[in-house]
Amino acid sequence: MLRKIFKIATNKYVITGMVFVIWSAFFDQNDWFSIRDKKKELEGVRNNIKYMNVEIARMEAEKKTLTDSTQLKDIETYAREKYRMHKENEDVYVIENAPK
Question: Is residue 5 assigned to a domain?
Answer without folding.
Answer: no
